[in-house]
Design brief:
about 80% helix
Length: about 270
């Protein structure tokens, strides 16, 4: 993996961990997610215009991906409002590639390599450690985190096919635009304009830039290195976020949860490289 690609992928991991750290620390995570998504769309839109291509065949994928992204935001914001980020983030990020791998094996009959199989076991063990061997996490929190992972897996599979009908950034902007508008309207109807205005602050705006920035960095890395290598490095965001939470004292993270986060990253790396 070229050094430039490695640095770009690590940058994507840091940015992804950062916007999740910012979002999870908001008083109203739903309003913050709505504002952040709008900001992320506006930031990346001008860049997308440089290489704009959107075929008519892309719309079923755009609509499906937007629905998945909207549900993802709803579940993620809900999870961060009721559970610790050090619990939600590793489980959500770790379960997604496992579900993608399982879907590929079930739908297409694709063979699962030995490294990938070992990776699945590591992710499963990591989730157990993050939750707590004695079941420290509430079943509701675990269900939310796994549901977030399922959403990531679903729109990842949709985007894999949809992206062939558009330029990468054009596809992203259209999906983000539909998602952000739908989510903004939903939050406005439920929480009102005052809640949305209160959510406009420096941390939310920075999180919004992170929404699109993490993808842009990963896209740049993908131009220089294989997708599997980039994906494996990107998931170091799980450990980055966990370490920041521990060092910053925002959450009490025991050795078991930290070890679980490391196991999840190792498992994802094996799945990506296998």
């Amino acid at each position: 993996m070229p050094l430039t690609a490695l640095l770009l992928a690590l940058g994507a991991a840091v940015v992804h961990a950062t916007w999740n750290l910012l979002l999870s620390n908001q008083d109203d995570t739903h309003s913050a997610a709505a504002i952040g998504m709008v900001v992320g769309t506006l930031v990346i839109a001008p860049v997308a215009l440089i290489d704009w291509r959107l075929d008519s065949a892309v719309w079923p994928y755009v609509v499906s991906s937007s629905a998945g992204e909207s549900l993802y935001l709803l579940l993620l914001a809900t999870a961060y409002s009721v559970a610790a980020m050090s619990f939600v983030y590793p489980i959500a990020r770790g379960s997604a590639p496992v579900l993608v791998l399982a879907a590929g094996a079930l739908v297409t009959g694709a063979a699962v390599s030995l490294p990938a199989a070992v990776g699945v076991v590591l992710v499963a063990a990591g989730i157990v450690l993050v939750r707590g061997i004695r079941g420290g996490g509430r079943p509701r929190d675990l269900a939310l985190a796994l549901s977030v992972g399922a959403c990531i897996a679903s729109y990842t599979l949709i985007d894999k096919h949809g992206i062939s009908h558009a330029s990468s950034l054009a596809y992203l902007v259209v999906v983000f635009a539909i998602t952000s508008l739908a989510y903004l309207i939903g939050v406005w109807r439920v929480r009102g304009g005052a809640a949305l205005r209160a959510a406009v602050n420096g941390r939310t705006l920075l999180a919004g830039v992170g929404f699109s920035g993490a993808y842009a960095l990963a896209l740049a890395a993908l131009r220089l290195a294989p997708a599997a290598s980039v994906a494996a490095v990107r998931e170091s965001s799980v450990v980055i976020a966990t370490v920041v939470l521990a060092i910053g004292g925002r959450e009490r993270i025991g050795p078991s949860r930290l070890l679980g986060a490391v196991a999840v990253v190792a498992g994802i790396a094996l799945i990506s490289l296998g």
